[in-house]
Design goal:
By secondary structure, the protein is α/β, with parallel strands linked by helices. It has 21 helices and 10 strands. The longest helix has 53 residues. The model has no long low-confidence stretch (mean pLDDT 84).
Length: 577
C-alpha cells in the first residue's frame, strides 16, 4: 500500500464517518478565513477615513469593527481547534480498538513472534503521532488554505500585478516542502524504531528486575538503557531538525517575496498606480498570508511522519490469521472425548521441526501422559489440540471429528489448560479465578478454590478474595499462583483437561495437598499430562515417551518399567534422587 492509498484508506474508513463534524469545522474555518482577510482590509479605510479624511464617525466605527472581527476570528479559531481535536481523538480511539481486537484475535504464532514492546509502541507512540497529524495538520490545513484564498482575493482586489509577484512564493515553497517531506519519512521511521527498541528493553528490564539484582547487573543495564534513550533522542532530534528546517527556508523565501513586493509597490506608487492606504492593506494581507503558506509548506513534512506511523499501525491491523473461527463449520460434538493424532508433523515458522509423523491415541475419559527430554515436542503436542498453532501435516481428531474442520470456539470451549507458565492478571483473586466463567457465583468460585486447596490461604489474607495479586501474580508464591490456575480450570469444568507441568512449582508437601484436587478435576475427563515428575504420571492409563519429535515407546508405568530402557533409566534417576 503506497502513501496515497494509505491516506485515502484512513479518510474513507475513519475520517469520513465524522463528515457532520467536518462540515461544522468547515463553517468555522470559513469564518476564520474571512475575518483574517477582513482584519487586513480594515487598514485601508482606517488610513483613508481616520488619518486622511479625519472622519469622526469612522473614528468610532472602524475600531468597533476591528474588535468584532478579532472576536469572531478568535472564537472561530477556538471552535475549529476543539472540533479537530474531537475528530482526531475519535479516529485514534477507533484505530486503537481495531489494534486491540487484532492483538486479541491474532494467532499465537504471530503474538509470540513479536516482542510485547513493539505492540506497546504501536499502540501508544504511533497512534499519538497519527493523532497529532490528523488534529494538528491534515484538518487544520484546510483552515490555512481557506485563509490563504481569502487573503489572496484581498490582495488581487488591491493590485493584481503585485499579487502575481507575491504568489511566486507558493510553488517555491511547495518544492522545498516536497524535499523536506521525503527526508522526514526516512527520519521518522528511524525514530519509531528507536522508540520501539526502548519499549522492548524497558519491558525486559521490568520483567527481569529480580534477575538483574541477583546477578548485580544494575550498572550494565543502566549503560544499555542509557544507550537506548540516547539513541532515541538522537533520532528524535533529527526528526525535529527536518521539521524545523522548513522555517529558515520559508523565512528566506518570504523575505525575497516581501522585498520584491515593497520594491515594485514603491515603483508603482511613484507612478500613482497605488495609494499608501491600499499598499498598507495589501502588505498586511501579504504578511498574514505568510503564516498559512508556511504552515502548508510544512504539511507534507508532517504527513510523511504520520504516514510512517500509519504504516506500522496498519501492518498490525492487516495481519492475516491462519486460524480463525469459521461460523460455517460444524460445532464439536463430544461423546467420550477421545483424541487421536494421525501422522502429525509440525514445523515452527522459523523452520524448526519439532514433531515428526507421530501417532498417539488418548482414550476418552482416561489419563494419558507424555514424557521426554526438554525440546522433544511435548508442549507442542499439547498446544496443537486447542489449535494454538495451525496443523498442516497429518490430522488430530476428537471423537472422529478433525479439529481443523470444526468451529474453533466450540473446540476451545471444551478444553481447559493448566500450564507451568501460570498467567494471572493484575486483578483480584476472585476475578482471576472467575476468568474461566464470568457468570460464576461467589459460592462456585469458593468451591473451586477449595478443590484447589487455596481457599484457606485466600481467607487468611486481609482482603480475602478481593486481594489484588499484582502483575502476573507477583505478590504470590509459585505454588499459590499455580493453585489459583487450577481453581480457574476447575471452575470451567470442561471435558478435556490439558496439564502442562501443572505441579512443577509445588514442593512435595504442596503437591500432595492438591493431588486429590487434580484427581477431582480430571475425574471422568479426557486428560493429557505433560510432566517430568513421575508422581504425576505413574497412575496414568497410558504413557508415551517422546524423543526428538518421535514416539519411541508407549504403555502403562509397569509395562514401561519392564520393557523400556529409556523410561526405566529416567524413573530410576528420579526415584533414587
Amino acid at each position: 500500500m503506497n502513501n496515497n492509498q494509505l491516506i485515502k484508506r484512513i479518510f474513507h474508513t475513519e475520517i469520513k464517518k465524522y463528515i457532520n463534524l467536518i462540515f461544522i469545522c468547515l463553517f468555522f474555518m470559513i469564518i476564520s478565513a474571512v475575518t483574517t482577510a477582513a482584519s487586513a482590509w480594515l487598514l485601508d479605510p482606517a488610513i483613508k477615513e481616520i488619518f486622511l479624511n479625519q472622519n469622526k464617525t469612522m473614528l468610532y466605527m472602524i475600531p468597533l469593527a476591528i474588535i468584532i472581527v478579532f472576536v469572531l476570528k478568535g472564537l472561530s479559531t477556538f471552535a475549529v481547534r476543539i472540533v479537530t481535536i474531537k475528530i482526531g481523538m475519535k479516529v485514534v480511539e477507533n484505530i486503537q480498538i481495531l489494534m486491540a481486537k487484532r492483538i486479541l484475535t491474532s494467532d499465537i504464532s504471530y503474538i509470540v513472534g513479536k516482542h510485547s514492546g513493539k505492540f506497546i509502541s504501536n499502540f501508544i507512540n504511533d497512534t499519538q503521532v497519527l493523532f497529532n497529524v490528523i488534529s494538528g495538520i491534515v484538518i487544520s490545513s484546510i483552515k490555512e488554505i481557506l485563509t490563504l484564498i481569502a487573503l489572496i482575493m484581498l490582495m488581487f482586489y488591491h493590485d493584481w500585478q503585485l499579487s502575481i509577484l507575491a504568489l511566486v512564493i507558493i510553488p517555491i515553497a511547495a518544492f522545498f516542502s516536497r524535499k523536506f517531506g521525503k527526508k522526514m519519512g526516512k527520519k521518522a521511521n528511524l525514530s519509531f524504531e528507536a522508540t520501539e527498541n526502548l519499549s522492548k528493553f524497558l519491558s525486559e528490564i521490568i520483567k527481569g528486575s529480580w534477575l538483574v539484582k541477583i546477578y548485580q547487573r544494575e550498572k550494565d543495564e543502566q549503560v544499555k538503557i542509557s544507550n537506548f534513550i540516547e539513541d532515541r533522542f538522537k533520532k528524535m532530534r533529527k526528526v525535529e531538525q527536518v521539521r524545523l528546517g522548513t522555517g529558515p527556508t520559508m523565512e528566506m523565501i518570504t523575505a525575497f517575496a516581501i522585498a520584491s513586493v515593497v520594491f515594485f509597490a514603491g515603483y508603482r506608487s511613484m507612478q500613482g498606480a497605488i495609494t499608501m492606504a491600499q499598499f498598507v492593506s495589501f502588505l498586511a494581507a501579504l504578511m498574514l498570508a505568510y503564516q498559512p503558506v508556511r504552515a502548508l509548506a510544512g504539511i507534507n513534512v508532517g504527513i510523511q511522519e504520520g504516514v510512517s506511523a500509519a504504516k506500522r499501525i496498519y501492518d498490525l491491523i492487516d495481519q492475516k490469521d491462519q486460524i480463525s473461527d469459521d461460523v460455517n463449520l460444524p460445532e464439536l460434538k463430544l461423546s467420550t472425548g477421545e483424541i487421536v493424532f494421525k501422522d502429525v508433523s509440525f514445523t515452527y515458522p522459523d523452520g524448526t521441526k519439532v514433531i515428526d509423523k507421530i501417532n498417539i491415541n488418548i482414550a476418552g475419559n482416561s489419563k494419558t501422559a507424555i514424557i521426554g527430554t526438554s525440546g522433544s515436542g511435548k508442549t507442542t503436542i499439547l498446544n496443537l489440540i486447542p489449535r494454538f498453532y495451525n496443523l498442516k501435516e497429518g490430522s488430530i481428531l476428537i471423537d472422529n471429528q478433525e479439529i481443523n474442520k470444526i468451529r474453533l470456539s466450540s473446540l476451545r470451549k471444551n478444553i481447559s489448560i493448566v500450564s507451568q507458565d501460570t498467567v494471572l492478571f493484575d486483578d483480584t483473586i476472585k476475578n482471576n479465578i472467575a476468568y474461566a466463567n464470568v457468570h460464576a457465583t461467589d459460592d462456585e468460585i469458593k468451591n473451586a478454590a477449595k478443590f484447589a486447596e487455596i481457599d484457606d490461604f485466600i481467607n487468611s489474607l486481609k482482603n480475602c478474595y478481593d486481594t489484588i495479586v499484582g502483575e502476573n501474580g507477583v505478590k504470590l508464591s509459585g505454588g499459590q499462583k499455580q493453585r489459583i490456575s487450577i481453581a480457574r480450570a476447575i471452575l470451567k469444568n470442561s471435558p478435556i483437561i490439558l496439564l502442562d507441568e501443572a505441579t512443577s512449582s509445588l514442593d512435595s508437601e504442596a503437591e500432595e495437598k492438591i493431588r486429590y484436587a487434580l484427581d477431582n478435576l480430571t475425574k471422568n475427563k479426557t486428560t493429557l499430562i505433560i510432566s517430568h515428575k513421575f508422581s504425576s504420571i505413574i497412575n496414568c492409563d497410558k504413557i508415551y515417551i517422546l524423543n526428538k519429535g518421535k514416539v519411541i515407546d508407549e504403555g502403562t508405568h509397569s509395562e514401561l518399567v519392564k520393557n523400556s530402557t529409556v523410561y526405566k533409566n529416567l524413573y530410576d534417576k528420579q526415584t533414587l534422587n
